[in-house]
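Write out this protein's structure.
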Amino acid sequence: MTPNDPRPPYVQVADDLRAAITSGRYAPGERLPSGRDLAREYGVALMTMQRALSALAEEGHVALYKSRGAFVRSAEPGDSAETRPTLAGLAREVSDLRATVQALEGRLDQLEGRAEAEQVAGQSDATMTEHAKAFQRQAIDAQADYELTQFVAEAERAKSDRPGA
């Protein structure tokens, strides 16, 4: 830490730790010293060190685990905090997809209602209902496939992010 450095202390610490990680001082999968030990080493408060580690975690350089510590993440090509989907982002996507499926189901119900009305009036075309049902099945299957793919990808990523995995 440099006292004349205008950057906040946590930024200075995070920059130094980031440089240590990228230089190979800390290898991928390696556990960093405890927050208390790092705070002592850098001469900062524990809260300052926790903020620096959180910044590194947000950038994807370390993975933080309660009661286990901070571990250096492996650098994968194209795997940055900006491109890696977050759990919250995936949850929003799933929520949006569910809303879309519900809207499609509502439209399908309307189509089926019209088809039934036309059938009662003697003007029904049975193929319209079959096409609507086939469309619903395809929409539901597509969403289920997408959600499963996203869930599996996130689970594999979480598993690979765990130290010793």
